[in-house]
Design brief:
This protein folds into two domains: 1-31; 36-226, Rossmann fold (3-Layer(aba) Sandwich), CATH 3.40.50.150. Helix content is 45%, strand content 23%. The protein contains eight helices and seven strands, in the order αααβαββαβαβαββα. Strands 3-2-1-4-5-7-6 form a seven-stranded mixed sheet, with helices on both faces. Strand 4, helix 6 (134-155) and strand 5 (156-167) form a beta-alpha-beta unit. The longest helix is centred in the middle third of the chain and has 22 residues, at 134-155. The protein binds S-adenosylmethionine. S-adenosylmethionine (SAM) is lined by residues 33-34, 36-37, 60-66, 83-86, 100-102, 125-128, 144.
């Protein structure tokens, strides 16, 4: 079979799965921008991550269904900062940047928004475009995970949490080890809405071990007083 025929067949299999997927239908009925909403809803049901008053950073946010869930759970108290390569269509309660999280400009935008305030929850559902070369795709994915982890460690409150999409396979155990160094508690979650045949899981880190990178106001005042 030629490459073109193969691609057409898998394309129609994907389309069949997509149109018959109960979560795709449910998302349309519930007004969510994508079926991914149910992954965060499933995890939040168990882990109670989202509460009114929180500051939430959503990395890899487009089309915006996790933002929708976050806004609902925050009940108009708190803020959601979202970044994606693609624009997130306007959503009340969400401040978004169309930009590349690997670029310094994304970090500058977040720093300007946060000022010295810390973050309660960092979400990363980022996934690079698939090239089809498994090792390359996994490596690019874990580069994004590591950058998101670095951001989370620097900006989370002492009782903050970091939820990140990971794919089991090459790089997974290394990244899990990094998560264990960074957080006192690390759990794996496979929400019902994550397709069984996908190696996708979510790693949930809670209570960062150390995050002195962002100096809070009280520490800054102490330092100034000591100077
Ligand atoms: N959580 C989203 C939702 O509920 O709508 C779905 C996210 S989708 C699975 C993965 C997203 O990661 C894509 O929209 C993609 O553009 C984004 N992404 C990939 N690489 C990125 C990067 N370097 N910076 C920002 N976003 C990135």
């Amino acid at each position: 079979m030629g490459q073109k025929a193969k691609r057409t067949k898998s394309g129609s299999a994907w389309m069949h799965e997509h149109v018959t997927d109960p979560y795709v239908k449910k998302a349309q009925l519930d007004g969510y921008r994508s079926r991914a909403a149910y992954k965060l809803l499933d995890i939040d049901k168990r882990d109670l991550l989202l509460h009114p008053g929180m500051t939430v950073v959503d990395l890899g946010a487009a089309p915006g269904s996790w933002c929708q869930v976050a806004v609902q759970k925050l009940k108009k108290k708190g803020r959601v900062l979202a970044i994606d390569l693609l624009p997130v269509a306007e959503l009340p309660g969400v401040e978004s940047l169309a930009g590349d999280f690997t670029e310094p400009s994304a970090l500058i935008w977040l720093e300007e928004k946060l000022k010295s305030g810390r973050v309660d929850l960092v979400l990363s559902d980022m996934a690079p475009n698939i090239s089809g070369v498994m090792l390359r795709d996994q490596a690019r994915h874990y580069e994004l995970c590591e950058l998101a982890l670095e951001f989370a460690v620097a900006w989370l409150k002492p009782n903050g949490a970091f939820l990140v999409k990971a794919f089991q396979g090459v790089g997974f155990e290394d990244f899990r080890a990094q998560m264990r160094l960074a957080f006192r508690q690390v759990d794996i979650r496979k929400p019902d809405s994550s397709r069984d045949r996908s190696t996708e899981v979510y790693l949930l880190g809670r209570n960062p071990n150390r995050n002195e990178s962002v100096t809070d106001d009280a520490t800054m005042t102490n330092l100034q007083n000591q100077a």
